[in-house]
Amino acid sequence: MSVLTLRLAGPLQSWGASARFARRTTESAPTKSGVIGMLAAAAGIERGNDDRLRPLAALRFGVRIDQPGTRVRDFHTAHHGVTGKSMPLSERFYLADAVFVAALEGDYPLLADLHAALRAPVYAPFLGRRSCPPALPVELHLRDHGGLQDALREEPWQASPWYRKQYRGQDEVELTVLREADEHEQMAADTLRDQPLSFAAEHRRHTLRTQVSDSVLIPNPSARQLPRHDPFDALDEESA
């Protein structure tokens, strides 16, 4: 199997799994439906074209939390375009300064097409909502061998330099990974209503998928090599 890796980094992101009335929440990490929707938009797949969406939705999905970010709340006001009447006050939640590595596992030809689409997208990619553009190119690598877990373990740490400074004393950092469960992990997996079936505006549909959480150790490129210090060295110097 092949794997396409993505870097999801921006000032704001919002990955909503549910929206109720005037309250729009965000998950703590990108959702599969949100990432598949971004890829479908880049490839020019229209919202009602479920046949072209189906191969994308069948890709195996995982995400690594490289920089968790901070949850922020924003209040929205609006007026009716015709009557001018005030609309209900709504609140929307975002992740600020977050960075993720997403990975999709599947057949090489499909992933190669999606990789090319991200480099020349039909519709511009956004991080969960149209108001959240990416700060860096989304595509990272297209791997023609290995699996999802290997890619999430081997992809270099994508956190911002200012964030990495907090870990200068560590040669490795432990990062959380959320991924679709293997066959033998189904009993211990959580279920989420996050498997896209249709993005058609009149009847968006999602079904359940499984997810497990684990962690990986990633080399820290900002690790500071501290000089060797042995308190007994001073005793040796005095005795000499």
From TrEMBL:
Q: Which InterPro entries match?
A: CRISPR-assoc_prot_Cas5, CRISPR-assoc_prot_Cas5_N, CRISPR-assoc_prot_CasD
What Gene3D superfamilies does the annotation carry? Answer: 3.30.70.2660
The record's keywords, sorted A to Z, are: Antiviral defense
Q: Which domain of life is it from?
A: Bacteria
Q: Which residues cross the membrane?
A: none
Region entry Disordered, spans: 210-240
GO biological process entries = defense response to virus; maintenance of CRISPR repeat elements
Gene Ontology molecular functions:
RNA binding
Q: Give the NCBIfam families listed for this entry.
A: casD_Cas5e, CRISPR_cas5
- What protein is this chain from? Type I-E CRISPR-associated protein Cas5/CasD
Q: Give the classification, highest ranks.
A: Bacteria, Bacillati, Actinomycetota, Actinomycetes, Kitasatosporales
